[in-house]
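User: Please fill in residues for this 399-position structure.
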């Protein structure tokens, strides 16, 4: 009797929008070592804070949904237990909090109970931001939410025509929160709805809709607002974030048949900027690289930032300034989606080409493009041996 042979395994490469595509765009070689290698980054502050704040916001929403705890929430009683839970989850994945950003009660080397916590001594930067994010945006955001942490997935044709391509298709995925038009119509004095009403492009899109039932997707970023003048600033995050929202919108439509009409990104560092954030914000304002502030209503904030020196105490910026910089509305239309998808296809093509080169024996540093901003190189775990490290001369300067 002839035994039938098992068919060849068929693998569809899966790409996450943030974990793969945006990470690759930051630096191809760093992405290779972190995502495709076995080396976890030693202290990726931005990665840790991004994951932390996402987790805190999701859990805060679930708590609000079940307990309807009134805002403002008390940090010690309402927020700190959520932070502890998220910290523990991240530690299980090997992501330990940076000591100067977060006081942890979970670390194996620290013997401390939550009774020992002192609100003033232990509310470090990450906790201060979590508290602000929940109390500034949660009260208005949570009642509009239809669902949280929705996994969206889709398949696209592999944009790579060679015979050695790994698969005919590639998978793309992401996780979003969704706001529904039903909840939006029910809300009256809501801060987020006011921002939506002030956005002319968004208003035009919903005016022309045949169906009154629409969605808005939400994403949180553990970073400052990127410069909106992408060309002069040489920082493309502004465009990458828009493309991410547009691709999420396409995925959501594939999955649910409903196309989101806008995305909202919350840049949560803006609510409690650090010294490093403020240096960059000052630079953005001085060189006219940012969309906010551009109006006369922020004159006193602009003056405070302009007069601030790095050794000074951080200036007391107005709540309006911080809120306006922390929210970004991205109206969605078909044309923009097509453009974003084709750009992401080309990123996948570049990653796939590098993987195939490496599989065929090419050296890692030759197979992957190493190009990053100076700041990214400065914080990179691989800077000591990367030939393209922008800070190399600084690292090895002999006095
Ligand atoms: S040092 Fe810079 S160029 Fe080299 S891998 Fe790291 S981020 Fe990329």
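Assistant: Residues filled in for all 399 positions:
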């Amino acid at each position: 009797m002839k035994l039938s042979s098992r068919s060849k395994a068929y693998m569809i490469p899966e790409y996450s929008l943030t974990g793969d595509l945006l990470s690759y765009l930051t630096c191809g070689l760093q992405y290779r070592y972190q995502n495709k290698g076995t080396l976890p980054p030693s202290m990726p502050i931005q990665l840790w804070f991004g994951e932390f704040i996402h987790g805190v916001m999701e859990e805060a929403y679930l708590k609000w949904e079940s307990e309807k705890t009134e805002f403002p929430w008390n940090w010690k009683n309402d927020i700190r237990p959520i932070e502890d839970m998220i910290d523990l989850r991240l530690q299980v994945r090997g992501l330990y909090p940076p000591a100067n950003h977060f006081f942890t009660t979970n670390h194996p080397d620290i013997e401390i109970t939550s009774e020992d916590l002192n609100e003033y001594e232990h509310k470090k930067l990450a906790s201060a931001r979590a508290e602000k994010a929940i109390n500034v945006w949660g009260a208005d955001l949570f009642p509009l939410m239809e669902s949280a942490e929705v996994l969206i997935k889709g398949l696209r044709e592999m944009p790579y025509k060679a015979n050695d391509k790994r698969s005919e298709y590639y998978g793309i995925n992401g996780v979003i929160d969704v706001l529904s038009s039903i909840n939006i119509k029910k809300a009256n004095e809501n801060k987020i709805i006011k921002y939506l009403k002030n956005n002319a492009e968004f208003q035009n899109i919903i005016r022309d809709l045949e169906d009154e039932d629409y969605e808005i997707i939400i994403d949180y970023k553990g970073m400052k607002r990127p410069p909106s003048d992408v060309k002069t600033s040489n920082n493309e995050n502004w465009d990458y974030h828009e493309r991410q929202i547009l691709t999420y919108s396409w995925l959501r439509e594939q999955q649910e048949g409903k196309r989101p009409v806008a995305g909202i990104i919350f840049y949560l560092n803006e609510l409690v900027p650090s010294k490093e954030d403020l240096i960059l914000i000052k630079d953005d304002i001085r060189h006219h690289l940012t969309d906010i502030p551009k109006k006369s209503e922020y004159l006193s904030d602009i003056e405070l930032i302009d007069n601030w020196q790095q050794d000074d105490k951080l200036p007391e910026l107005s709540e309006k300034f911080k809120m306006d910089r922390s929210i970004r509305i991205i109206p969605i239309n078909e044309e923009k989606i097509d453009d974003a998808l084709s750009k992401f296809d080309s990123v996948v093509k570049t990653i796939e080409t590098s993987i195939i080169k490496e599989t065929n024996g090419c050296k890692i540093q030759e197979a992957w493009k190493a190009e990053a901003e100076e700041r990214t190189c400065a914080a990179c775990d691989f800077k000591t041996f990367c030939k393209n490290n922008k800070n190399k001369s600084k690292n090895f300067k002999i006095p």
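For context: The radius of gyration is 23 Å.
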